From TrEMBL:
InterPro entries: DUF7770. Residues 26-165 form the DUF7770 domain. Pfam families: DUF7770. This is Genomic scaffold, ProqFM164S02.
Length: 166
């Protein structure tokens, strides 16, 4: 998130959150969250392995980079599915980001193969539900069930584990 644009991005109102798997790469889909502000704009929170900053918890892994991007569309064209999470009214990008950092969700590590975004996304959905930012239990269950599949074929795929560090 560019420092010069940070305040503007954090002030963006969120209308809904989408959990999204992208095209397969390396045998799995890459998942991230889109904080939708309209059908034509969103802020993507994308947790990706750094591959250069060594892990302190997972042997051979790497620390994550959380990339926050303001986008002129709701979700990427390479999205394989989308799981809608209705949110409490009045939520902003800054509130979501603030809770992610308050709960240490920005201190994440991927395994040696660079896998772990599905675990991270699941953890954030659980946190958003726990904080009552997301309130529909059936939508939460559907998103978490979707994360346990490979898209678009929808074959079962056990959840890989990442880890949080202090």
């Amino acid at each position: 998130m560019p420092a010069s644009h940070q305040a503007q991005i954090l002030a963006i109102p969120v209308k809904r959150i989408l959990a999204v798997p992208h095209r397969k790469a390396g045998g799995t889909n890459h998942w991230c969250l889109y904080l939708s502000s309209s059908p034509a704009s969103s802020v993507r929170i994308d947790c990706q392995p750094s591959y250069t900053i060594p892990s302190s918890v997972l042997r051979g892994g790497s620390k994550a980079n959380l990339i926050i991007s303001e986008l002129p569309y709701e979700i990427s064209t390479d999205a394989q599915a989308q799981f809608i999470l209705d949110i409490a009214p009045g939520l902003s990008v800054g509130q979501v980001w603030g809770e992610f950092t308050r709960y240490g969700r920005h201190k994440y590590e991927f395994d040696a193969m660079g896998v772990g975004c599905r675990c991270w996304t699941t953890n954030q959905i659980n946190l958003l539900y726990q904080l009552q930012f997301v309130g529909n239990a059936s939508q939460v269950a559907a998103a978490k069930a979707g994360i346990l599949k490979l898209w678009p074929d929808q074959t079962p795929l056990p959840l890989d584990q990442g880890a949080y560090y202090q």
